[in-house]
Design goal:
By secondary structure, this protein is of the alpha/beta class. It has two domains: 274 residues, Zn peptidases (Aminopeptidase, 3-Layer(aba) Sandwich), CATH 3.40.630; 128 residues, no CATH class. It has eleven helices and eight strands. Strands 1-2-4-3-5-8-6-7 form an eight-stranded mixed β-sheet, sandwiched between helices. Helix 9 links the parallel strand 6 and strand 7.
Length: 432
Amino acid sequence: MEERLKKYTDEAYAIVEYAANEIGQRVPGSEGEKKFHGYLADKFGEIGLRSTTEKFIFAPRGSIGGLPYAGWGGVILAVLLVLGVLGGKLHPQIGAALHFFAALYGIGLWTWVIASVFKYKTWFDWCFKQEMSYNTYAELLPQSGKYDRTIFLTGHTDTSWTLKHSAAKGSSAFIYVKIGIGAVSVALTTSLALVCFVCSMGFAFSASDETALTFYKAVDALFYIVTFSSPALIVGSYMLTLYNEKNPRVASPGAMDNATGVAIAYETIKYFKENPEEAPANCRIIAMGCGAEEAGLRGSINFVRAHKKDGLLSNACHINIDSIADKDYFEVIHGDAWLCPRFDREMTKIACEAMKEAGVPNPGDISNPVGGCDSTPFQKAGVKSVTIAAQNPAMTYYYHTLFDVPERFEKETVGRGLEIAVRIVKKLDERR
């Protein structure tokens, strides 16, 4: 780490400590998240920058935060299947009606899961309880006051609900297995509901005795399949309900994820404010704390929607900083597997070069394997974007749990992340 950045590193780590230890959990839409936005606005004021805080309404459980609902959906579906096969023994049309409802319920459930949980769409947010979150940002203009481009630096202010599957050290090896069993159970239950519906409808409304007999045999076989498999499907689906802890009091304090990103974004703009001779020419720098990232990127989605036509995003680049703590895992994130976009290739190349110059010999170059990051809404809005991180990409005991505390990682790792961010800004200036 360069000596000139030591002061800013100390301050960045102090911000992380304050966020995690003094404010604590900051789940999307919580008082803790609101308090952190107020704190960030005050920090901008301390260095003479006027901040803007924009409010937006969102559904904390409308996307990935509501994944446990999919587990409960699987449990309900399994119960409906049992009722359907039992009802079919009383009268074929009773079974057909119950299986029709189960199939319709399953299709609706998976429509929401695919659209909202995997693709982060906001289509179904109106179905869930609404809360308020914020985006807080400040602009640093060149001394001339004239600029023809903008560089955004962002980190998200909120923290995650604690993952029940990884809330104890040593359990991380089973996270994928437990969540996988839950997802497969819900998928199998939905598929079985569709098969039961087709067969029971065929039996109840067959035009010929021969066709009715064929469907009767299928319905009879399904009776035994559902009867014996439903307990396992219920237990398996229930595992998915344990995806996260609903009680915000035991949510992650979010030191790594992502007080580090907010702190680095802030200290980067402060560095260029106090060292104007190093600031990029004719360039506006904006540092921002994005809200509700853990609820499906709702802060960055709302930000780009709000400013799509007002020129704020014109001729802009975006550096997203998300989780800088694991010193052996500095990496450039070039895309989100779930959400599809490939981030800007030139930005990715610049970020990799900056990491090497900052002392990272072999930086990772990965696609975000699960979920998404705030680069995606910016990239989709036409803003060249990249995300940098220093986080073990495998699920660990501290990922989204109570163990995400400042004491777990070194101040120097945060400092290296800060140096990388500063270098990226300078390289963008060199290559404009």
